[in-house]
Amino acid sequence: MRRKRGRALDGWLIVDKPAGMTSTDVVNRVRRGFDAQKAGHGGTLDPLATGLLPVAFGAATKTVPYIMDGTKLYHFTLRIGEARDTDDADGQVIATSDVRPTDEQFRAALGAFQGEIRQVPPIFSAIKVAGERAYDMAREGRPPVLEPRPARIDRFELIARPDADTAVFEVQSGKGVYMRSLARDLSVACGTVGHVAALRRLRVGPFLEKDAISLDKILSSEDNAPASPELLLPVATALADIPALALTSSEAASLSHGQAISLVELMGRIPVGANPAGGVARAMDGGRVIGLCRLEEGWLRPERLL
């Protein structure tokens, strides 16, 4: 068999993404910097955006879906009075307005954008329409008509108003929420137009801004040696938000071999946060994470083993 190039590394690297790079660019740079065999990211950031971009190496790539499902925290700056085709500062101006909402008007409108809402994604997005990427269609002058999609906004607050033309908001949301769409739609709800002038992600699931490392620091080796694995967080760090279920060694061995365990045998040990009707738990053998399991129909079934 052909041997994979690079080192077999497992773990999470929390990158403080700079503006002007795509998420894929960042992943490729750090994968080369670590000379790693396998890497992927836990949630795309637009080129304009900065902040947390979790990069998974090796076995950590198995936990990417759980990171993407986690809570996100953003700060975005709304530029009022200009609509752009990309809904951010990288696009072309397509409409203007002289209306400048007051702080009170913004706050009054925020309630309609919280909870379970439906949101039309930006036409410059990676969504596929009839097999084509929406952004490719838009760039070719064939902007697609995108349908509203479910989105969950836990919190949406005005946190600063530097001047009449700009406002800064904090958003806590679930996965798949477009800050560009929020900025666009909030502006329209307040009788004007607007776009995202700046965007920073401060949290992704259990990963916080304090965990992030700049690209310069990660790739600062002067002798071209691979970056140090000491910068990586353990694979299980990504699962810290998922309720832990303590197993015996024999139960852990059974799960590791793909066998389900009756929930009756686990009575008294099932964590409060784990829903017995389809919930997910983090299976633990002492201090070691075995993997993720799903509770359903009276059984604990292995779903993603590490």
Q: In summary, what is this structure?
A:
By secondary structure, the chain is of the alpha+beta class.
Radius of gyration equals: 22 Å
Q: What is the mean predicted local confidence, pLDDT?
A: 91
Structural class, by secondary structure, is: alpha+beta
Catalogue the unreliable spans: none
Total count of strands: 19
Classify the helix fraction into a percent range.
Answer: 10-25%
Q: How would the global form be characterised? A: globular
The oligomeric state of the chains shown is: single chain
Quickly count the helices. Answer: 7
Percent of residues in beta strands?
Answer: 35-45%
Termini Cα gap:
24 Å
One letter per element, helices H and strands E, the order comes to EHEEHEEEHEEEHEEHEEEHEHEEEE
Q: Largest sheet, described in full?
A: 10 strands, mixed
Structure, described:
With 306 residues, the chain is α+β, with helices and mostly antiparallel strands. It has helices spanning 23-34, 64-68, 103-110, 134-139, 179-189, 215-218, 249-256, and strands spanning 11-17, 39-41, 50-57, 72-80, 82-84, 93-96, 115-119, 128-129, 132-133, 149-163, 166-173, 194-204, 207-208, 213-214, 244-246, 261-262, 280-285, 288-296, 299-305. Strands 1, 2, 3, 4, 7, 10, 11, 12, 13 and 14 form a 10-stranded mixed beta sheet that branches. A 5-stranded mixed beta sheet has the order 15-17-18-19-16, with helices on one face. A two-stranded antiparallel sheet has the order 5-6. A hairpin with a 2-residue loop joins strand 12 and strand 13.
